[in-house]
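Title: [Solved] L,D-transpeptidase 3D structure

Original question kept below for reference.
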Amino acid sequence: MTKTLKTRRQFVSTTMIGLLAAPSLLRAQEQEPSAVRRNISSFSVDLWQDHFDNLQHGAILCDIDSRAVQYWSEDESVYKLYPSSVPASEELTRRGYTEVIRKVEGPSWRPTPSMKERNPEWPDYWPPGPDNPLGTHALYLSWQYYRVHGTGDTRKIGRQSSNGCIGLYNEHIAELFALAEVGTQVRIF
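Solution (posted by the thread starter after getting help):
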């Protein structure tokens, strides 16, 4: 009796899973691979030597394509890899070399003039706090308006969703904030 029940349960479970999965499998097979987009980073791991001449003050590499941020400490004892959000479009993306010029815990936020143009309903100022668009910590770069910062909106991580900045989970930016220093070199590519 027990063996029959187990067999029936297995049969019903297997059949139900097959019936529930079949429509989505069929839809997935009908779509072209390029039409399927997911919130997944490829996390390519790079060598710092391919991007920087040295590790003086450490290095942060922001990879737009793999949607990942990598960090190396000056003495190479620390390496970190974080998933990130990246600019929503190529027009909002700035690529090249810069550096951390300021670190702010509990940053306030003001939208840039171009952000206000695109979104006039946005406030002119947002004080520090849990809903702040810059999250809990921000690393200000030498390029005006560009930051590596946190976000409380975890749906953005792994996506093209920012207005130009690189976003990290708040717990990851807190960790990177503690590791990076003013003068840490940054490459966004």
